[in-house]
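Is this the right way to post structure tokens for a design question? Let me know if I should format differently. Anyway, here goes:
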């Protein structure tokens, strides 16, 4: 008898679950999304880091050195610059992750005195990329120097070890100690803005529908846009206050630098909020319950967190995931906030990311407002 009651209870619960196919589908889809994201995106083995080269020598020996770095897939020779200022600008803007400076007379020094120095500059704003570049630059330089020395000794018929002719000097900009907190705390700001505005906005609207109070709001003189703004404004203010809070703690406790204007940071954070608010409102037009709203937002939040560079470097991901990451506004905001905090770059240099955020924000808010208005009607 007890088994019959238990089986009946189990059957009843399954019926309840099957009556809500949308939630069931989300529950079944989310683990699959997590599996693929963690399987492909969870990777710190960085490859093809964009390399900017300032070759002041242009000798055959310099070309051999570049060939050695090109042969290894850690670096991708993306820029051939004509000045240190141009190299600095590429690294500040995030277009290049590392820079190589070959001094004039490098080839003559290798052939004459038997020793020469080159300078490697690494962007420390992403410690994973910088650490990989640090090790790769040293190993490739040592291997190339050992090969040059072996060839020289072979020509004169001498065997044995000698001092390598090439010395690679390494400099890390923006985060010399490769502190992980310098990378994670700006990312946490993006995660907070995304979570608070999208999750809580979606739940706030659906909560009114569940309680039946949204109908009472509709029959009042309040306009639809006033209802929308009234619902989302408190969470926008809370998100910006949390941003200031995280910035203060990150700077005073963890020592994360703030090298840009606070007004610029808050202004661009507010621009990002257009996208996250739009996602929350769109979820509220799809969901009928708070549980559905939360699962719907989480379905977008998981890939956004994994593919935005929050946890793992974008350079370590497969090419197709790097392409998919372009559809997530969080990717552009993390690039902006990390650059502003750690490098103090002018917003004008970040215009591609800022333009992308503006487009996403306008499109998502427009779609959300149209669907929300239709749902109210």
């Amino acid at each position: 008898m007890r088994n019959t009651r238990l089986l009946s209870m189990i059957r009843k619960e399954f019926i309840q679950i099957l009556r809500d196919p949308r939630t069931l589908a989300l529950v079944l889809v989310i683990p699959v999304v997590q599996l693929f994201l963690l399987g492909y995106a969870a990777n710190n083995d960085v490859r093809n880091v964009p390399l900017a080269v300032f070759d002041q020598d242009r000798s055959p020996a310099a070309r051999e050195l570049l060939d050695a770095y090109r042969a290894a897939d850690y670096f991708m020779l993306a820029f051939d610059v004509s000045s240190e200022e141009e190299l600095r600008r590429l690294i500040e803007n995030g277009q290049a992750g590392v820079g190589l400076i070959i001094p004039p007379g490098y080839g003559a020094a290798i052939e004459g005195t038997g020793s020469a120095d080159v300078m490697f500059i690494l962007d420390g704003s992403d410690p994973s990329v910088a650490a990989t570049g640090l090790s790769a630059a040293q190993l490739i330089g040592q291997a190339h120097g050992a090969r040059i020395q072996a060839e020289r000794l072979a020509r004169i018929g001498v065997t044995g070890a000698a001092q390598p002719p090439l010395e690679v000097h390494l400099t890390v900009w923006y985060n010399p100690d490769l502190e992980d907190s310098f990378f994670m705390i700006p990312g946490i700001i993006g995660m907070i803005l995304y979570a608070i505005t999208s999750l809580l906005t979606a739940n706030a609207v659906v909560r009114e529908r569940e309680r039946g109070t949204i109908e009472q709001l509709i029959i009042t003189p309040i306009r639809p846009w006033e209802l929308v703004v009234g619902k989302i404004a408190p969470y926008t203010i809370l998100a910006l206050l949390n941003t200031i809070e995280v910035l203060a703690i990150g700077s005073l406790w963890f020592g994360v630098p703030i090298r840009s204007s606070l007004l610029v940071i808050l202004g661009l954070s507010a621009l990002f909020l257009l996208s996250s608010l739009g996602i929350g409102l769109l979820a509220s037009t799809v969901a009928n319950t708070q549980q559905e709203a939360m699962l719907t937002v989480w379905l977008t939040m998981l890939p956004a967190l994994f593919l935005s560079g929050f946890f793992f470097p974008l350079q370590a991901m497969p090419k197709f995931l790097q392409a998919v990451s372009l559809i997530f506004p969080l990717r552009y905001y993390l690039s902006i906030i990390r650059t502003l905090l750690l490098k103090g770059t002018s917003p004008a240099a970040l215009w591609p990311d800022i333009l992308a955020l503006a487009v996403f924000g306008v499109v998502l808010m427009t779609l959300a407002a149209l669907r929300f208005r239709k749902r109210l009607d």
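Format looks fine. Someone answered above. Worth noting: DSSP finds 14 helices and five strands in the chain. The first helix runs from residue 2 to 18.
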